[in-house]
Amino acid sequence: MKALILGSGTSTGVPRVGNDWGDCDPVEPRNRRLRASILVESDDGSRLLVDTSTDLRAQLLANDIDRIDGVFWTHEHADHCHGIDDLRVLRYGRGGPLLGYAHSDVVRILRQRFGYAFAGQHGYPTIISLESLDRLRICAGIGVASVQMPHGPGETTGFRFDSNGKTIVYATDFSAVTKEMLDLFYGCDILVVDCLRREPHPTHCHLEMAIELANATLAKKAVLTHLDKSMDYQTLSREVPEHVLVGYDGMEVTA
């Protein structure tokens, strides 16, 4: 089972518009970050996409992805869902719409924003069949479990994916760790975790919290993602423990 980091950046990416690299060395290619998303792939080739970032088309092209078996959304913020139209090409040649899942509140909001994608219109087929996560236990042969996480005043969904005894967890855009998160994430092989910056943030995880979560869950590997322009790849790589990796676009981690 493997995790492919499609995008490891914040809502503004790195560099920010205006060629603002902050503390990131522009010569280091791993500092160039698209908006956060991930692809989980099982041994038999099943692929699940988490979030349709605003950079989705570029991510699919860069990683030669022309097929997925399901798509999941962590929450409704623009950087995590406004690339939804790029799923149209992945619908071509299929006998039916792509399978899509999110928390019930997110389902409602996505239907309001992107109704055409879930109902079709003007002769165009439905792109995605969107359903709530409530009763979902398996998708394309991959076990799926989820938990709601604090995201400042709102919430986001953390996911645990299981296949052939291996587990990948994706937890981004959270601002506190709950018992429910610890229980679901415990013993995972790979924890891909939000790590906006070193200093605490009102709606995101910071470096110390991310490492504490990795240790508390006994994650075999942790991959830091959703990194802002203060998080230079080489500098951060020298700071973190051996079992913690600094994520970058195109990074592939195998469980």
Automatic annotation (TrEMBL):
Coiled coil (residue ranges): none
Highest taxon in the source lineage: Bacteria
All residue ranges annotated as the Metallo-beta-lactamase domain in the record: 34-226
Transmembrane regions: none
Gene3D superfamilies (alphabetical): Ribonuclease Z/Hydroxyacylglutathione hydrolase-like
Any Pfam family matching the protein: Lactamase_B_2
The protein, known as: MBL fold metallo-hydrolase
